[in-house]
Every structure is written in structure tokens, then in C-alpha cells.
Design a protein that fits this description.
Blueprint: H1 2-7, E1 13-17, E2 26-30, E3 33-38, H2 43-46, H3 52-64, E4 69-73, H4 77-90, E5 93-98, H5 117-132, E6 136-139, H6 142-151, E7 158-160, H7 175-182, E8 189-194, H8 201-210, E9 214-219, H9 224-232, E10 239-243, H10 249-255, E11 259-262, H11 268-272, H12 276-284, E12 288-290, H13 295-300, E13 306-308, H14 314-322, H15 325-341, H16 345-362
Parallel strand pairs: 1-3, 4-5, 5-6, 6-7, 8-9, 8-11, 9-10, 11-12, 12-13
Antiparallel strand pairs: 2-3
Helix pairs in contact: 3-4, 7-10, 8-14, 12-15
Amino acid sequence: MAEALAARGHDVTLLCVCRERTLKTRWSRAADVLVGETPNLRPEFGATGYGLPDILARLVTAWTGQYDLIHLFDHKPNATLPGFLTRLRRGPALISDWADWWGGAPGALNDRPHRFPIVHRFEDWWEVRSKLWSDGVTTISRVLRERALAAGCPAERVLYVPTGAPLQRIVPVPKAEARARLGLDPQASILGFVGISQDDLEILFATLQQQPQALLLLIGPIIPSVMEMAESLGVRQRVLTPGRIHGAELNQYLGSTDLLCLPMKDNAYNRGRLPNKLLDYLAAGRAVVACPVGDVADILGPSGAGRLAGQAEFSEAVASLLARPDLAQELGVQARALAETAFNWNDLVPAIEDFYFKTLDARGRSL
């Protein structure tokens, strides 16, 4: 999104917390976007948006820069505190993005134990209040758009815009080539899953139980509780765990799979989001098997890029495509075509740009 905006002539600064432990902001340029990786002294706080050095660094950048508009990614303090304080001091337009369903419903992200329960109570309130106090709201899903309207955000100040696909970063790779490079069995049936959030993997583990010939390539952090679940279900030996994979290497891992899987339980968290992994899957040009939850059902249903299946039918859907590699390949071609059309950032950004202009006009400012 930032790169597409920069390509249209805008001066874009992107702030994100650094993955590594660091005391100061690291600056770089990527495709004409100025990228600031802010301090991260304790990853357990930085990753949740509560790192004080991160917050202060963003505040200094926002206060000292000449910004006409600030677009906040969700409601965490490292985004909203610098954003709202800068609007008070310098007056830029403020747009809040709503990308996840955090609180206020069973099955939401914050419907989990926390060692400081007051944090969840605050976030349940601030998640909604920060949107009401913003000049505009973008939502990643239609469900969250409806939630914004129900909360009292005026319709003209709410824009639904899905995430775009990483078309340059992720490209289709021939399966045989990818497996040769990674040393994987060329004859194996390999399912793929990418993600930090692994709450729904029991659906895939149950699929492995019913598909004893299949392997699961699990790309992401190795979480002990998830591995214990796989062990208890008797499938741990068929779960390949390369860990987190970044950059061009991810293409090889995605390309080595027969199918890419998106298991999702039907809860508020899953209904409200559009998983980034789905766009990665489409860009990789692989057939997708997903649960029909939230916007995923609307995307995959009419697209011909994969198969929708509930939890009980997930294994059957996987088996049907493993048995038809020709069909899986055809669906993969459709997946890439869908990524290049409906989820091309170059086509999505004009609507965002127009929303920016309207929001600025309402505040009496201009780009």
C-alpha cells in the first residue's frame, strides 16, 4: 500500500517496530517509501504495541515531520497515542484502520486470559472509541465496516478496503524446482500453512489424521503448545517446522506445496479479519482450501481459486484436490489471477487516495 501510494507521487513515511532489539530508530528507503524501524528493547512489549521507546520515537517523528495525514494501523498505543497527540499539536487528518476484532464479543482476540485484565478492559473501550474520534476509518473486512457503522461512525467516513496481495514479493514457483532446492520428497503430498496465529491448527491436524499420506509444512513460529497438540493427535512426525521464513525464500516454501490451507473456526476474531496469509497464498499461485468464515467465503466462493469447507468437511476437500493434481493446478492459476486483479494494490489504492482527499477536505486541508 505504501509503495503504491509513493508511486502515485505521495511522500510516504512508514513507521513499524523493529524485529530486533535496538535502542534507536533505523531508517531506510524501500521503493521510494521512507521506512523507520522504531526502538524495541523488549520484544514482548514491542510486539503488542506497548513499548515505551517505540511510542516515544513515533511521537518525535510525527511531531517533527510535516505530515498532512496520519493513517493508524489499529488502536494500540504505539499508533494511537502519537497519532492523536500529533493531531492536537499540528492538526493533520487522522484515519484509523480497523484490521481485527479485538474485544466486545465472545471469540474476539481479547477474549483470552491476560495477566493484566485491565489492559483488555481498556482495549475493549479504546478499540471503538479511537475510531469514533478519528476523521476517517478504513476496515479490512465488511464485518468490521458494519461494526464501525453500528458503533456510530458516519457512513461517509468509513471505507472498506481489503488487503492487497504482495505480487512482487511472492510469485509462483514450479513445485519440482522448489522441492529440489529445499530437499523435499518430489512425490510427497504436502499441505502448507503460514502464520503467527495458529489457534485453528487442530483442524489441519485432524486432516492429517484422516490423510495419513500427507505432510504439513508449518511456516511460522514454533509454538510449544501447538507442537504438544500435534503430538497428542499422533501427527507430530508429519509436521515440518522450518520456523519463520522471510523474503524471497518464502517463495520456495510456498511453491513446494500441493495445497495451501486456511483453517478458521467460526468466531468473532475470524469473522472480522482478512488473513494476510490468504493474499500470500493467492499470490503464490496455489489452490487454497479454507473455511467459509467472514470475507473469506465471499472471496473464494465465486473466484474458482480454491475450495471452501467447514471443519467437518475440511479433510474431504483436501483429499479431493490431492487426488486431482490437474484440478489443483488449474485452481492455482485462478488464484494468481485473482491476486493480480481483485487484490492488486495499484487498483486498490485509488479508492484509498480518494478517501484521503475527502477526509482532508472535511478538515480544510489538502495534499
